[in-house]
Amino acid sequence: MKSLSKISFLAFILFIGFAFSSCSDDDDNSGTEELRLNFNGLEDLGGDYVYEGWLIVDGSAVTSGVFTVDATGTMSQTTFTVSADDLSNASTFVLTIEPAVDPDPAPSDVHVLAGDFSGTSAPLTVSHGAALGSDFTGATGKYILATPTNDMTSDELSGVWFLDPAAGPGAGLDLPTLPAGWMYEGWAVIGGQPLSTGRFLDAGGADDAAPYSGPNGGPAFPGEDFLTNAPAGLSFPTDLSGATVVISIEPSPDNSPAPFTLKPLLSGVPAGAADHTAYDMTNNAANTNPTGTASR
Question: In the chain, which residues have pLDDT < 50?
């Protein structure tokens, strides 16, 4: 009888311990919820950078985790375990680009998408004030073909400058002001190979680079002459007729030699194009702006 009582007592203790353990686990799990993310139009950032989500709770940014996107646009992860309180109290979701090895726990300046929660979801856009602040659908552009950085007149179709001769000359681009973490960049895609014409913030000033230009100074507008230092597979001077001219929006810093996904303006240079003639660019923002949804 004593033996049976001892066994029963031990069984009771084990049962109580198991029940307590189970309750503790339930309490721990009840403190978290799943955040679900869905995106269209994000691109592979390579090995140096990742995307990171942030919940804005009472004005403070709380990370929801990092993920990558492969060459097909597939996310490495779509659900993220976060604090139930943070998720419930979050007013806004923000997506940033961060260094893959990041000693700074705060968000970077490179805000890609953002949106306010309404009920259980937040539609994410580039135009939100916590992202880039514009959808760029009102951007316009003109450019000319010319080679002002040398004294030759036989290669005028080998340079592109984003200016409007009829304006004095004046700026050929009308673009929204970018927030910190972003810059505009011009491109000429020659034979399928994108070549940068330089980065800039102000369309009424020169850009930051002239790797292919000649010895003379260029006009005080974004642009480039393709006269020297031709990359492998190309020869300069060239004829830009049939090439594609692009204005992109680039994260800063940026490790990619190709245009980022945001390409609000582009133009196919006409076959048989004339030099010193203004050509209009097409607004392409609606086709390249990424979008997304955060669901709680």
Answer: 1-28
